[in-house]
Amino acid sequence: MKHPIQSIAFTVALFLAGISSARAQSGAAKWQVGINGGMLIYQGDLTPSDMGSYQTAQPVFGLYVSRVLNPSFLLRTNLAVGKLYGNDAKYDSPIWRKERNYKFTSPIAEISELLVWNMFDNNGNELGKKFSPYAFGGLGVTFLRIKRDTSNFNTHYFAAATNLVNGLAADLSRMPPRAILVAPMGLGVEFNLTDRLSLTAETSFRLTFTDYLDGFSFGANPNKKDFYHSHTIGLLYRFGKSNSLGCPVIVR
Length: 252
Hints:
This protein is α+β, with helices and mostly antiparallel strands. It is built from three helices and nine strands.
């Protein structure tokens, strides 16, 4: 039988071990940072497809910081910087596009807050899986500096199209927006290189609430909003250790 003092000492040791274990658990990675880059695709009146055109794709670069809420969800503050570009003259069909010949450019800076769902409940690479797909959505603001160009518009070709000519005049009398509300949403996948470092690939669609992303509306198609989307690859770094106790990782 153990001496009472030994029993007390043993109990205290177990208690302290429990505290140490809890602290180790709480020391698991809670913050992540990432960088990415890729292409930005404009979707609007100056493309023949509702999905946009890769003929006018432009570069985009991003930085983000994420706060891990639990293995399934995290909050991500995202900054993206790039350029949007549209040009009617890029397309041979329909023929009127080359005659209308609108074009625009705009640098963009997008700030957004996203809720990210890791489908495998593996935000800290707790499961040791190589691939972790995720989905995300949120709200943000995109800052613009739209420059329209109608210098090659063929007034003779559209002489009978009074609605278009009058609509263009109305558009040019209106100042394009300098900032718009956006709702980013998309899908991605992480390829875990280590417990801290991952490669990422994602596609993000931006729902907007304006038809003036390109500076044109009534002089084009006022019945449809403008959008944009991106495809990026990048690197993700997790601070701290996802397996702080040094226990073996169970691979499912």
